[in-house]
Amino acid sequence: MAEPGSSPETNKPRKHRDATTQPARLARLLIRRARFGALGTADHGHPHVSLIAVASDQRGQPLMLISDLAKHTQNIGRDVRASVLIEVAQPGVIQDVGDPFNNGLPTPQRADQADPLTLARVTLTGRVEAVPAELRAADQERFLARHPDAQRYAHFSDFNLYRLVVEEGHLVAGFGAINDLTAEQLLIAEERAQALAAAEPGMIDHMNADHADAIADMATGLLNLPKGTWRMTGVDCEGYDLVDGNRGWARGTFEQPLRNPAGARAVFARLTNLARGIDLTDDAP
Fold this sequence. Notes:
Layout: H1 23-33, E1 36-43, E2 46-53, E3 55-56, E4 62-67, H2 71-78, E5 81-87, E6 121-130, H3 133-146, E7 159-174, E8 177-182, H4 183-186, H5 190-210, H6 212-222, E9 231-236, E10 239-244, E11 248-253, H7 264-275
Antiparallel strand pairs: 1-2, 1-5, 3-4, 4-7, 5-6, 6-7, 7-8, 9-10, 10-11
Helix pairs in contact: 5-6, 6-7
């Protein structure tokens, strides 16, 4: 995956005034943290916008569990072109995470009380398609981990799992901080994503069953979260998701992206040591 500014000149995104040093990384963080977004579809030539629950697949593409009866789903049946707007303020997601590895990316502590126009948001544009059969079980598990209440209707015959196949993104990180981003900048490479998808359930089960103390230490020692019953609900190339039923969701990032699932054990061991005040200088796998 190319980092900002590394795309070939012919594919270089338009760049406006930029107040962030890592716009693509910020956009990906917004996507990974999201639980809700605004879905824009075409309704007989007119724009139609709906509030939907979202999660993300291993590549970083938005997932949505939507009913065939919904107007936006009917619109998609006629025209698959769509967009999803994601903003930094997310119900149920803790804003003031003290993540040492987010490199200063803006996640405002009081986003709920700030002027929304000053906060970061990203619009993803592409086409909506049903999640392929071979990915459906894993992607639905990721969606339900982010939205446990959806278990009540996930099995209904009219509900199906879709994804936005991202073609480009438009990031507004604040006043005058605007970047257009390519799909290559926004998404994890397919091969790496598939490897993580296969390994993720085992990683999560192992961490929650055998290393609950490490999760608790990462939550409080790295992310400055309050003590609680934190559990791991997701792992991807760039970070991990935690949840406490009484407090909400939180996102932690890796110091360096995972190159393969085999490196996860060493990465989590290092994060645990750092959370406990043991700084072992070592390159992340």
